[in-house]
Every structure is written in structure tokens, then in C-alpha cells.
Amino acid sequence: xxxxxxxxxxxxxxxxxxxxxxxxxxxxxxxxxxxxxxxxxxxxxxxxxxxxxxxxxxxxxxxxxxxxxxxxxxxxxxxxxxxxxxxxxxxxxxxxxxxxxxxxxxxxxxxxxxxxxxxxxxxxxxxxxxxxxxxxxxxxxxxxxxxxxxxxxxxxxxxxxxxxxxxxxxxxxxxxxxxxxxxxxxxxxxxxxxxxxxxxxxxxxxxxxxxxxxxxxxxxxxxxxxxxxxxxxxxxxxxxxxxxxxxxxxxxxx
Length: 254
Ligand SMILES: NC(=O)c1ccc[n+]([C@@H]2O[C@H](COP(=O)([O-])OP(=O)(O)OC[C@H]3O[C@@H](n4cnc5c(N)ncnc54)[C@H](OP(=O)(O)O)[C@@H]3O)[C@@H](O)[C@H]2O)c1
Fold this sequence. Notes:
It is a single chain. The protein is α/β, with parallel strands linked by helices. It has one domain (about 10-95, about 110-190, about 225-245): Rossmann fold (3-Layer(aba) Sandwich), CATH 3.40.50. It has helices at about 20-30, 40-55, 70-80, 105-135, 160-180, 205-215, 225-235, and strands at about 10-15, 35-40, 55-60, 85-90, 140-145, 185-190, 245. The protein has a seven-stranded parallel sheet, with helices on both faces. Strand 4, helix 4 (about 105-135) and strand 5 form a beta-alpha-beta unit. Helix 1 (about 20-30) crosses helix 7 (about 225-235), helix 3 (about 70-80) runs parallel beside helix 4 and helix 4 (about 105-135) runs parallel beside helix 5. The site of NADP nicotinamide-adenine-dinucleotide phosphate has 29 residues, from helix 1 and helix 4.
């Protein structure tokens, strides 16, 4: 039986945990060869073994994509190994909550570096390959999927810089969608509500209990729920462009 993504190559950033990990696994099951990009080598190797045990193909690409050279290299290694690149999922990100004025040195920079600069560098490096895939690839379409957030639509106290980055990703994605539409590259934004991942664990210790209490109060989403949404975007027929998907837990009021 043929799968929707047979013969295609997907690069997923943030593949060592959470949404990126679930997405890589899901897209591999649909036939794509997947490049797994993040900093934690052992986690990526575990995922590659899992994907291969399920009959898929995976490449471990250890990289901190907050520098341009590293992002270029991650794309280069993917194309060198698999010969092409049809889909990019920009999932790597950080959310460090807390009042703006109290943030210790480096917190804003960490979020800006990965949530914005990492997306820009990786996207720029991938674009020529995505355009080529849309021209020559088995599906005659290519996809760039940016993982934004409910925090890219609704701003809340304690999330100022995270909101800045995710509102920014939404604007960037829409402008880029218009630029790339004539070239056959679909640009989509997926906006998860609260998902049980490692994201909240990076919050400063004194604030972590509050964040965990909010997450623990309801049945939140699982990474696989967002992977399903991403899969819907990427596997849709070339005549369909799913520009934006906003997925919240049923019990989520915020
Ligand atoms: N969980 C939620 O409730 C939620 C809600 C809305 C939106 N989101 C968004 O979903 C995306 C994925 O988050 P998640 O929930 O899956 O969190 P997560 O489990 O913490 O995953 C974040 C991923 O980003 C990678 N990463 C961080 N810094 C990196 C860097 N400098 N270079 C390369 N990779 C880096 C991490 O890998 P390494 O540490 O191994 O590098 C990890 O794989 C993020 O953009 C987040 O903002 C999440």
C-alpha cells in the first residue's frame, strides 16, 4: 500500500522531544525519510532506532540551530544524505514564563534565539531545496510548517517575550506564504494550546509549580494530537493549502 509521503524527505527541528518527536515519528510512518534535528544526540538516536524499528528511515542531525552556520549545516547534511528536501517542520522552541521585568539575563535572548532566529536561519537554508522539490518532487508541492502557539494569538501577562516570538512567527508565516505560493511551497502555521511536553520544565524553579498547576488542572493535549494536525497539513493534496491550524484541549479556557 502506498503512503501519502512516500519518496519525500522531511526535516523536523526539535525532534528530541515533545511535538517535534511525535511529528517525526508520524511523518516517517507515512513514508517520509526524516532528518531529526536538535542538540541532544542520545534522544535523537533513540528516536531514530524507534523509527527504523517501525520500518522507517531516519537521520540524526545534532545541531544547535541558533547560529546561521549550524542551520545551514543541518540542511546541508540532510540533503547530502537523502538527496532532497520536501518538507520542513520548525518545532524547536522555548517558553520561559514570568513577568517581563523580573527575567534574569539571557531568558529573552534564549527565546528570541530559538523561536525566531532558529526559524529564520533554518528556513532560509531550506528554501532553495523546497522550491526545487515543488518543481521536481514526487508530489509537486513542498511544505514549510511553523509551530506557533495559542500564545501567537492571545497575549497574557507573564508571557510577554514568548508572545512576541509567536505573534512574530504568525506574521512571518503569512508574509512568506504569499511570497512562496507562486513557487509551489505551502507555508502553514500550527498553533497548539497546552500540550504535555518538556516545554514547561525549562521555566525558572520558583515559577514552575504555578505553570505545572495550570497544566495539571485540565486534561491537556498530547504531542501526538499536534502531530496529527501537522500530518493533515503536509499530507493534503497539492490543490489544498491548510494555512493555519489552531488546536486547543477541549477543557482549555485560556
Ligand atoms: N507544549 C506546549 O504546550 C506548546 C504549546 C504551544 C506551542 N508549543 C510550541 O511547540 C514547539 C515544540 O515545543 P514542545 O512543547 O514540543 O517542547 P519541548 O518538548 O521542550 O521541545 C522543544 C524542542 O526544541 C529543541 N530545541 C531547543 N533549543 C534548541 C536549539 N538551540 N537548537 C535545536 N533544537 C533546540 C529541543 O531539543 P534539544 O534540547 O535536544 O536541543 C526540543 O527537541 C515549540 O515551538 C513551542 O513553542 C508548545
